[in-house]
Amino acid sequence: MGLSTSSVITLHVNGEKHTLPVDHRTTLLDALRERLDLTGTKKGCDQGQCGACTVLVDGRRTVACLQLAVAAEGREITTIEGVADGDRLHPVQQAFIDLDGYQCGYCTPGQICSAIGMLAEHAAGWPSAASGDIRPAVGPTPLTPEEIRERMSGNLCRCSAYTSIVEAVARAAEADASSAARVPEQSGEAAV
Amino acid sequence: MTTTAQEAAVRAVGTGHVRVEGRDKVTGAARYAGDIPFTELAYGWLVLSTVVRGRIRDIASGPVLEMPGVVAVLDHRNAPRLETDYVSLLGRPDPTCAVFQHDAVPHLGWPVALVVAQTPEQAREAAEALVVEYEPLPHDIEFTGDHPDSYPVDGHMPGVTDKGDQEAELAASAAVVDEEYTTPEEHHHPMEPHAATARWEDGRLEVVDSNQGATWVVGELANLFSLDPASIRVRSEHVGGGFGSKGVRAHQVAAVMAATVLQRPVRVALTRPQMFALAGHRSPTVQRVRLGADTEGRLRALDHRSVSRTSKVYEFVEASAGVARVMYDAAAHHTENRVVRRDVPSPTFMRGPGEAPGAFALESALDELAEKCGIDPIELRLRNEPDKGPVSGLPFATRNLRACFEEGARRFGWAQRDPRPGVRRDGRWLLGTGTAAASFPAGAAPSTAAITAEADGRFTVRIAATDIGTGARTALTLVAADALDVAPERVTVRIGDSEFGFAMIAGGSMGTRSWSMAVIAAARDLRERLVPGMAIPAEGITVRSDTTAQIAALANMERHSYGAQFAEAAVDPATGEVRVRRMLGIFAAGRIVNPLTARSQFTGGMTWGISMALHEEAVRDPAFGGPVGADLAGYHVATNADVPRIEADWVDDTDPDDPVGIKGIGEVAIVGAAAAIANAVWHATGVRHRSLPIRPSRVLTAGSDA
């Protein structure tokens, strides 16, 4: 056939550029885990149903298992390894530790990336199914526990740490609204 | 260093501590089984049967071996031979894990081949391209409560217990409940799918695995492959949930086979859909409960019979009637656990095995009896508190169920409850509240541990414990700190490595209790060795413990955790939707080691109760033999929006005669939770739901036959 089944691509991950050949079938998830050794992003179902592989792509939460690596070329990808500021944890990470927003920890990277993306969505005025009156004149929707539950429902936690996850996200949002909604690295401008 | 006077004035046990591995878990640094890199790693992909029952006629491995990157196809014709005639920790092995030994297919999703390739993409495509020819045979997966082929089974408890004259006591009773309750097939689905990487190095087999007990897996692999256990090392430092499903399974065995044949590291991970066939599940149950009581609500007759389903290759009984042997006594007392063997995958232990479905039936029946007697459901239970084991006759080590109900009732506002059903409304919602009791055994099993006093003044604990999310590693750090009389910051606990010697698995709510005994014993001996002012050599001073004798010396008693579950449910009669609005669980579960993580485990278990009551149900199609929608979109587990405010707390449950006073808390919190919700749904609507889950279609059609 002569058609190539692989390409050399450049992925921008956590502020670093990685140039690598990839099989066209390779998902972003497998590229991160198997090729770049960024195994913090977890494979829970590999079919977009559990949220364990959630990463931020151009600031938006994305399930990496449903994204082909070749389609992620040139986009700013942030994984759990890239959300802390050096040794200083992101407020969402710290709140997950302090309030025990996890048990086995396997869904945790996805929960944290999802929470960071969600807080940015909320800050940008995006409504959810739990939002009440969403007319612009009414102003921003308060980040109630119901809002957090609804907006975090794409991330399954079989240990069922949900109540603590909601508390952790709320604390991170309260503690420092600006920094909790901060999308790490250089990708914040694309969050809206 | 030299030892000094010990400094820890404040006890670590009993105060909240964040998880010692917390930073690793929130930064992605924690490496789970599929996360550890190996050079020359090859990827195995299991091929599962597409017929329910039959024989393999041919496997066309030739064309697949020509595909890019494919290095091997293993099947029953070329795979290493396994030994399955042995008995280990949990009995005989489930033959489902003994892959590729014959051409028979006993259920849908039976492993028929492993395709190994250089990359996961190549392995997956080749596995999907592999043509397997079958000679299909007729199958039968039909499961009913009155199936003529059912028979009683002694599992981890006797199949049948019986005393008194049921019919006479029922005839003499002022109030009788006689109902059938059903629970569906349920699946564990830990967030981390089962994964293992196997490799041979310097004549030793190393397996990095996701399991609930590293030394347990060593023993199974040694038996299956006829190897010296000392030649196998299994590591599982971080495990992404287990809930009973993570023992020896097809993926580890296939990985070891491939690593043996290819002499290179091979990783095999189950896909989420494959887990429906290969990870075990909770059998559906059909339970009949008959209760007879006098006018005061005191039980005269208790008859609890459960039928569950197992595979044709493995006998596992979901011992749902066992809970009645602990909870309530009656002059006539009969319990029975039966199974029916069908052409389905093998079930296994799943969080609260027996107790979870059993308490749904029994605690629902108690609620029905309370209604018939006109007695408050809590009062009814307290009037039936036994003073000794109803079947065993043994004394209870502790039984603080009454305190759970009293504290729970106070905090839930139970005294203000109007017992009448179907009279509260909030807009379109009918509201109700319900309660149920919980119990789970508090066992312990022999374990070993080692503690080293390091030259730098720190202490290192080594124990083949597993933290599947329970917080065990942090709990053991606190237990060791107190036992050594030092601050927890000076203690490092290493777990998940079979090199540390035998230890109990993370199962049966026995892990932390069993491991704590070993850690405390080692710490006690180490402190005797350490004289103030003595010099610690560079290699440290290490002391080992083995609790086999201590466990054997434990007095034979009824040892259990207890709990009182409370739920408020809202039911929309127009759509059939049920929402849990709040839950409260009060538990008597021994000494709570780490309140922060213990609360998580309790609320997690209660959330499993919501999931069990309202969502979880694998519907197996009789024609194609598998669950419909075998993935996390088709099999619903509770998600964040399903879970309201849940509170869990505990009462004092001190047992001065117990060597550690710690009980397991992983399972008791699911027990009774579904019954409390179902009882709340009755209180909201006036209609009983005796089949789980209480899905909208059942709410909408209920009452037509009630």
Automatic annotation (TrEMBL), chain A:
Q: What GO annotations for molecular function exist for this entry?
A: 2 iron, 2 sulfur cluster binding; metal ion binding; oxidoreductase activity, acting on the aldehyde or oxo group of donors
**Any Pfam family the entry gives:** Fer2_2
This protein's pathway reads: Alkaloid degradation; nicotine degradation
The yes or no answer to whether the keyword Iron-sulfur is present is yes
Ranges for domain 2Fe-2S ferredoxin-type come to 7-83
* Alphabetical list of InterPro entries matching this protein: 2Fe-2S-bd, 2Fe-2S-bd_dom_sf, 2Fe-2S_ferredoxin-like_sf, 2Fe-2S_ferredoxin-type, 2Fe2S_fd_BS, Aldehyde_Oxdr_Iron-Sulfur, Beta-grasp_dom_sf
Q: Which keywords appear in this protein's UniProt record, sorted alphabetically?
A: 2Fe-2S, Iron, Iron-sulfur, Metal-binding, Oxidoreductase
Task: Spell out the PANTHER family in the cross-references.
Answer: OXIDOREDUCTASE WITH IRON-SULFUR SUBUNIT (PTHR45331:SF2), OXIDOREDUCTASE, IRON-SULPHUR BINDING SUBUNIT-RELATED-RELATED (PTHR45331)
For this entry, the protein name equals: Oxidoreductase
What is the protein's species of origin? Streptomyces brasiliensis
Tell me the lineage of the source organism: Bacteria, Bacillati, Actinomycetota, Actinomycetes, Kitasatosporales
Automatic annotation (TrEMBL), chain B:
**Keyword set for this entry?**
Molybdenum, Oxidoreductase
Task: Please give the SUPFAM superfamilies that the UniProt record associates with this protein.
Answer: CO dehydrogenase molybdoprotein N-domain-like, Molybdenum cofactor-binding domain
- The protein in question is named Oxidoreductase
Q: Which residues form the signal peptide?
A: none
Q: Name one GO molecular function term.
A: iron ion binding
By its UniProt entry, which Gene3D superfamilies does this protein fall under?
Aldehyde oxidase/xanthine dehydrogenase, a/b hammerhead (3.90.1170.50), Aldehyde oxidase/xanthine dehydrogenase, molybdopterin binding domain (3.30.365.10)
Keyword set includes Cell division: no
Indicate the segments forming the Aldehyde oxidase/xanthine dehydrogenase a/b hammerhead domain, all copies. 27-138
